[in-house]
C-alpha cells in the first residue's frame, strides 16, 4: 500500500507531461496562423505558414503554407503538394498560381474558384533547402543537394510538421505534384513506407504525378514527336532530332559541360524553329513578353494557361511575395538572398540525378498497395503525354496488371476533359485536355474533377 501514492504521483507526472506537450504543440501551430494576407478576400477557412526545422545543427529550415479545407476540415484528407524544377517553389507556383485558394492580381488577391482546398487540407512545401523562403544558416547546405537529401529532408519535415499539427497525424495522406516532383514524390513515399515499418506514422493513401519526370530518356525523347506533330519543327529537323542527336543526349552532354558539334547544330535548328516566343510548357498559349527569357529553363515550371487567364501571373506572384507586409503576414524571412524567387538562384542541385529513373520506385509503391495516378496536360512539350503514357503502360505490363478501365474519354461538365486508362484499380493514367505543364493553372476546373476522383479512388466521369 505504501507504494501506491508513488505510482499515483508518477502517473500524475506523465499526465502533466502529456498535457504540456499538447499545449506546446498547439501553441506552435497557433504562432503560424495567418490572420489575413494583404489584399485577401474574406474566407472561412484557416491558413498557416512558417518554418519547420529539419537540421538543428546547421539551422536548416523548410518553409510551408497550409490552407485548411474550405468546409469541415476535420473530415477531409491531408494533401502535400510539391513543385519540381528542381529548385522551384510550391508556394509561388503551386499555391499562388495553380491550385491554392488565391492568385495575385495587382495589389490584391482574388479567389481561385477551383482551389483544391475545396476538397482537402492543402500543404504546400518549399523544398529543397534554398528554394523560396526555405533556408540554411550554413551556405554549404546549398551545395551538392540531390534526390536523396531532398527525400530525407521532406520526410523529416513531415515528421516535425505533425508535431505542430498533431490532429493530422492519422489523417488520410496523399502526395501530389508535377514535373521534377516525379522524382521527389515517389522517393519520399518510399521513405515513408520504410519509416512505417518501425513506427506507424504516415497514413499514405495515394500519390498523383502531373507531367512527371519518371524515366529520363523516354520522357525527354518524346519531345521530338510532340514538336513535329504540333507543327513546331520541320520534317527535316524532326529527322535530325531523332537520328543524330535526341534530346536526352543533348541534356546529358549539356549537364556534363561538353555539348558535341552535332547536338549543338541540331538544338540550334530546334530552337530557331520552335521559337522563343512559343511557351514550351503550353505550345498553344501566348507568352508573357516580360518574362519570356526565363521560359527557356529546362524543367522550370512556368505559369501558363488559357487566353482567359493572366499569362504574366509569374511576375505578379514575384511582386506579391517580395512585399514586406506579405512576408510578415506569412511569417517568412529572407536569409542569404535579396528577394524571393520562383526558382532558386542559390541552390546547386545534382542535376545528373535527373537520369536516375523513378518509374521503378513507382512500381515498388504499386506493389506495396499504394494507388498511383499519372496525369498529363496534353499541351505540354516539356514532359509530353506520350512518354508518360508509354511508361505507365510498360509498368502495368511488367506488374501484370489487367486493364480495369479501358482507354476512353472522361468528362468535365458537358465537355471532354481528357482520356484515361486504369490498370488493376491501382495504377492509372489520364490526360487533361487543353492543359499545360501546370495543369491546375491552365485547366483548373478539369484538374479539380480529376483531383476529386483521385481522392475518392473512383474512375473519372464517363458521361456528361
UniProtKB/TrEMBL annotation:
Alphabetized PROSITE patterns for the sequence: CARBOXYPEPT_SER_HIS, CARBOXYPEPT_SER_SER
SUPFAM superfamilies: alpha/beta-Hydrolases (SSF53474)
One matching Pfam family: Peptidase_S10
Region forming the signal peptide: 1-21
Class in the EC hierarchy, top level: hydrolase
Cellular compartments per GO CC: extracellular region; vacuole
Predominant localisation class: secreted
Gene3D superfamilies in the record: 3.40.50.11320, 6.10.250.940, alpha/beta hydrolase (3.40.50.1820)
Enzyme Commission numbers on file: 3.4.16.-
GO molecular function terms listed in the Swiss-Prot or TrEMBL record: serine-type carboxypeptidase activity
Keywords, alphabetical: Carboxypeptidase, Disulfide bond, Glycoprotein, Hydrolase, Protease, Secreted, Signal
A GO biological-process term: proteolysis
Localization: Secreted
Similarity-based family: Belongs to the peptidase S10 family.
Primary role: Probable carboxypeptidase.
Protein name per Swiss-Prot or TrEMBL: Carboxypeptidase
Organism listed in the record: Citrus clementina
